[in-house]
């Protein structure tokens, strides 16, 4: 058949004309045309016939303006209909969410609201022309997962409403148009295809980086920039060519509109890799690393309410920089040099109330000093930074808490203490003018490519405001076998957490590693067969496969309310960050009795005391005894520095003290030889800050919910009776576990007595 014959067939469909032949001819013309919108007037009649529609509108997505556009001829003039990506219009909703819709009656507001609460039908055309719109089919035009436009059918000619068959036919046309539009837009077949086409990287090497990204849990963009030598703008424009969304490079002078997402945590935005750059209730601009991820697009609409959404694509590293503060200062001056510079800038200290008013939190040296304080704390593996003002003109003391103990680091001139505190407040979003009340906040900073969350507390004292910064480095879960559990405790723990339901508790004081242990446990049982929900405050460790919720009491999201909501989400495993009250404890017990495996923590001193504490909260002893799997109590024991620890032979008095604390009854378990064994003591070197200790490890006691323990629990036995029974059945105390680790040369007896008595 000639091209003219094809044209006539497409333009003048005869009654009874074979639909497949007509469809094939239309498809061929689409592929042969230079531009689809130039061809559309010639094939529109054929498409209406094939799709059984009275009207047809085809929208194309514009890369620069982030709208969909339909062009039509009015006289000699080409006009456009522009529709923003918005949940308020039908075409805009489909373009935004890339989901097809079939609407029986566009005038039925209830039907529209079942699709989306904000969805409306624009009646202006009907009111202006007298035309009556009825049924509608709207499908997205997608190629390689990238949305490129929308096909809209109006009023079925074969009945009162379109059917699923019409929806499928429209989707077939949309698939063809997706290939055509991608070609017209000079789109690529992958996010980094443009780099290959431009000979910036070979296809084989690109595939190697993609595999490494999956194996190492990093993004491909970072590898391409850091190891393949590609510029960020090259990678960004390759993403733009594929996703058909404008690339936005990082702008250090731009302040993101975080006020639009104040009700969600920075952790959530960091994990989801998106951020609002600007906007209001009318229109919001979102920076995201994958604008074709419909799950995230749907979540964005729930979190950020707006009439119109405009997307920009950004590199993951750039998005993270917007979400925090990059601490890689250009001036790499030593921290002591910065203090000297502050003293030179501050001059003599006048002891008046307004001594610091002339100093700014934006002073370059102050900014560098705060950055270096955080950097140095991170390098020393500190958990906290304490800034403590002294009386009068004395400089403020800065101490790092390393391995559980505070270590003096430096002193800040009194003339600059207030400016340093103000800088910390600015970073944390606190009120710098309020110095009379305690304040708490948080901020996210970046150390090279490591995100680090800081929890900040400021406290007014008689000497001025002090500040404590807790460093919460985003980290992965440790393997269970890296927790230093004794072989017996390890075996019993893995047995208990393999149960399908029940409650397992990890207990200890603040900072004893309970969260680390729980995440190691979750990582051990985390597989594709199990749905795991966690509620935490804060979310410090993230794991693939876990659904993790940040508790926010200010808006009513508490541990108890989260637990109730989790039960409606059909989980297999639930982790509640802490059982702080009777409501949460009772809900956890009930959840474990209804077929869920529940994990949680408590601030108690030992495993037997935990059971008594929960009963004191008022939970039902019978239910709790039925639910109990086990309680793991733990402490963190400072370990000797491997580079400087010194072997020695303990005295008989020291060995007798160890045996006494271990228990004469169980002394044979120590396996002490006839001759005194070699132990180790601390010495001190530069690697450990001359402390003799570097790092910490766990000591544990595991109480298993045996039938005997459960019976005693149901009868409200005391902690002493529970401890006696548990030890008879194999439990070993924190003290006993610590002594075992001393005999292995990992620590010394003084450290065990300090934390386990």
Tell me the helix content: 25-40%
Shape: elongated
Number of H- or I-type helical stretches: 28
* Helix vs. strand class: alpha/beta
In short:
The chain has 757 residues and is α/β, with parallel strands linked by helices.
What does this protein structure show overall?
The chain has 28 helices and 25 strands. With 757 residues, the chain is an alpha/beta fold. It has a seven-stranded mixed β-sheet with strand order 10-14-15-16-11-12-13, with helices on both faces. A seven-stranded mixed β-sheet has the order 19-18-20-21-17-22-25, sandwiched between helices. α13 links the parallel β8 (283-288) and β9. The protein is elongated.
List the helices and strands and how they pair.
Blueprint: H1 3-11, H2 19-32, H3 36-51, E1 53-61, E2 67-74, E3 77-84, H4 90-97, E4 101-103, H5 109-115, H6 124-129, E5 136-143, E6 146-156, H7 164-184, H8 193-197, H9 203-216, H10 220-226, H11 232-243, H12 266-272, E7 274-279, E8 283-288, H13 294-303, E9 308-313, H14 316-323, E10 325-326, H15 335-346, H16 364-379, E11 382-388, E12 396-402, E13 405-412, H17 417-428, E14 439-447, E15 450-461, E16 464-473, H18 487-497, E17 502-507, H19 514-525, E18 532-536, E19 546-550, H20 559-567, E20 573-576, H21 582-593, E21 597-602, H22 607-616, H23 621-627, E22 628-640, E23 646-648, H24 652-662, E24 679-681, E25 693-704, H25 707-714, H26 719-728, H27 734-743, H28 749-756
Parallel strand pairs: 8-9, 10-14, 17-21, 17-22, 18-19, 18-20, 20-21
Antiparallel strand pairs: 1-2, 1-6, 2-3, 4-5, 5-6, 7-8, 11-12, 11-16, 12-13, 14-15, 15-16, 22-25, 23-24
